Amino acid sequence: MMKDLKSIYHQIEQYERLQAQDALRLLVDAELLDLAYAADRMKRRLHPEPIVTYVVDRNINYTNICSSGCRFCAFYKDAMQPEKGYLISEESLKQKIEETLSLGGTQILLQGGLNPHLDFDYYLNLLRFIKSGFPIHIHGFSPPEILFMAERAGLSITDTLKELIQAGLDSIPGGGAEILVDDVRKQISPNKYRSGQWLDVMREAHHLGLRTTATMMFGHIETKAKIIEHLEKIRSLQDETGGFTAFIPWTFQPSHTRLNVRKATAVEYLRVLSVSRLFLDNIDNIQASWVTQGDKIAQASMAFGANDLGSTMIEENVVAAAGVSFRLPKEEMIRLIRDAGYQPRQRDCFYNPVNGGSSHG
Q: Quick one: pLDDT band at residue 134, thresholds 50, 70, 90?
């Protein structure tokens, strides 16, 4: 029998863990501002100081050639048409990292397509080239890329990760999760790895001491129950390993893709954000997706459970390929946080303060 909302809110107030059916009830039936209130209280329990963090980094997509053919992606070029694709040059990579460092950046987010023209040595050499030339954190290679490398190299996930770590990989982004339910994945990305494989990469990474983030792309063909199923899998793995630093839910951007669906609204986004904060009681940080929502909803997110605004994204290509081009320089991010009544604080990938923890960025 489904609990009434009042008893679910009482549970939250008593610090009792929400069950999946409770989270689903909140997502479907709760009043928006009641959700915001509960998520904000949960956030303040975890982060008593009125601080919202951000990181200065750059997304570097080393190739756009991809054999996966996901229906939701507007960025990739088919592996059979390499003339439309690219592979980043060392000179271009060098310039991008130098610019990132000059802007106070502390890390790069390194991701790319599943390019069948690349062997495992390419990735190892890429990491070594960066580490030999620059004092920068490499947050790189989502689980599908690592699975792809392991297959190409004929190695286990563990051995693949060990080689990547030795070459300079510092942490792993949570990309490629989409919705961690296989019947959804089969429809939106039939050639991509299954949910259990994504979780296996993260589990092994955590056991090897690599911290990672977790994401969820929603607002396409999934149901609300599937959203909760995704959150359950993330929370369960976090119970096991404690390796996730943050969770980032974001909405699918349908323009220029092969999925003809209605774009999720800002209210739908804020509902999922709040429920994520309430359900994922073992993940410290919930990140707002200003890249897909814009600056005003990013500000609202701080009252709906988010304690982090993510990256200033000196460069971003994947969401931009779907026709979304919000931009947020560091100074603007600081202003947005202050105007919402919080203290801005620049952080690194592990949520440590940068520049001695100055709230001036």
A: very high
- Interior/surface letters 71-94, b for 16+ CB within 10 angstroms, e for the rest: ebbbbbbebeeeeebebbeeeebe
Q: What angle do CA 224, 248, 138 make, to 5 degrees?
A: 145
- CA nearest to 174, candidates 131, 202, 215, 139: 215
The answer to whether the beta carbons of residues 35 and 304 sit under 8 Å apart is: yes
Total number of residues shown for the chain: 361
Residue 132: per-residue pLDDT: 97
Q: Which residue has the higher pLDDT, 327 or 54?
A: 54
- The predicted structure's pLDDT at residue 259: 61
Measured distance CA(286)–CA(172) in Å, rounded: 16
pLDDT of 66 above 90: no
Amino acid letter, residue 265: T
In angstroms and rounded to an integer, the radius of gyration of the C-alpha atoms of the chain is: 20
What's the angle, vertex CA 59, arms to CA 229 and CA 47, rounded to 5? 55
In the chain, where the domains are located: 18-356
Q: How many CB atoms are closer than 10 A to CB 296?
A: 11
H-type helices in the chain, by residue range? 5-13, 20-29, 32-46, 90-102, 120-133, 143-153, 157-167, 182-188, 195-207, 224-241, 266-279, 290-293, 295-301, 330-339
How would you classify the pairing of strands 244-251 and 211-218? parallel
Q: What is the mean pLDDT of residues 207-214?
A: 98
> Comparing 299 with 85, which gets the higher pLDDT?
299
The span from the CA of 360 to the CA of 355, in Å, is 9
Homologous superfamily, domain 18-356: Aldolase class I (3.20.20.70)
> What does the alpha-carbon distance between residue 81 and residue 44 come to, in Å, rounded to a whole number?
50
Q: Is 242 helix (H, G, I), strand (E, B) or coil?
A: coil
Residue position matching structure tokens 């520049």: 355
How many CB atoms sit inside 10 A of residue 190's CB?
11
Hey, CA dihedral for 316, 319, 323, 327, is it positive or negative?
Answer: negative
CA pair distance 219, 268, nearest whole angstrom: 8
Q: How confident is the model at residue 309 (pLDDT cuts 50, 70, 90)?
A: very high
Is the predicted pLDDT of residue 203 greater than 50, yes or no?
Answer: yes
